[in-house]
Amino acid sequence: MPASDASTSGKPRLTRKPLHMIVACSENRVIGRAGTLPWRIKEDLHYLFEMVKGGVVIEGRRVFDELKRPYPGTRTIVLSRDPARTFDGCDKAGDLDIALRMADAIDGFDTIWIGGGQRLYEEALPLIDRLFLTLVHTEVSDGDTFFPEWRKRFTKVVSSRRSTNGKLDYTFLVLEPE
Ligand SMILES: NC(=O)c1ccc[n+]([C@@H]2O[C@H](COP(=O)([O-])OP(=O)(O)OC[C@H]3O[C@@H](n4cnc5c(N)ncnc54)[C@H](OP(=O)(O)O)[C@@H]3O)[C@@H](O)[C@H]2O)c1
Hints:
The protein is an alpha/beta fold. It has a single domain, classed as Dihydrofolate Reductase, subunit A, CATH 3.40.430.10. It has 4 helices and 10 strands; from the N terminus they run ββαβαββαβαββββ. It has helices at about 40-50, 60-65, 95-105, 120-125; strands spanning about 20-25, 30, 55-60, 75-80, 90-95, 110-115, 130-135, 145, 155-165, 170-175. The strands form 2 sheets. The chain has an 8-stranded mixed sheet with strand order 5-4-3-6-1-7-10-9, with helices on both faces. Strand 3 (about 55-60), helix 2 and strand 4 (about 75-80) form a beta-alpha-beta unit. NADP nicotinamide-adenine-dinucleotide phosphate binds near residues 25, 66, 115 and 118.
C-alpha cells in the first residue's frame, strides 16, 4: 500500500509496512531504572526477541547501549543526534521521520518495530497501528523512564495472555486503536 493510503483505522499511513510498538511496563507505566529494566522476566525477553525477528527495529541510543548489538534476525536503526556515534551492526538516523523512511525502504524485513525508550515511545505512540504491551502487574517506585498513557487510545484488545515467573505476574497484551 502506498504511504499516503488510509490504514484500517481510517488514518493516513505513514509507512507502507505495518508500524508496531513493543514494550514492557509496570502498572504505573515504568519501563526503566538506571539504564536497564526494573525486572528480569525471561519469558518476556524471549517474546520480544521472537516478535521483532524478521523486522526493522527503531530504538534510542540508550537502548542500544544496553544490548550493544542489533536484535538477532532484524535490521536495527538507532536514533542519535550525535554525529560522532556509530552503532555496531546497526544503521543510524538523526530523527524518527528519517528512520521510518529508511525502515520502509529496507527489502525483506516486513514490519517496523518501535523499541523505545521513553522519548521514542512518546513520539511514535500516535503513529502506530498495533501495540504489543507486556503489562507487569507491579508498581515500581524508583523508575526513571516511563511509557506514555496508552489506555484511552488503545482500547481494542486483539489478544491477552496472563503468565507468571513465580515472582511477578504479567499479561501479554496486543492492542489496537478502536
Ligand atoms: N521495558 C521496556 O520495554 C523498555 C524498552 C526500551 C527501553 N527500556 C528502558 O528505557 C531506558 C532507556 O530509555 P531512554 O528513554 O532513557 O533512552 P533512549 O530513548 O534509548 O535513548 C535516548 C537517546 O536516543 C536518541 N534519541 C531518542 N529519540 C530520538 C529522536 N526522536 N531523534 C533523535 N535522537 C533520538 C538520543 O540520543 P543522543 O543523545 O545520542 O542524541 C537520546 O538521548 C533503559 O532503562 C531501558 O532499560 C525499557
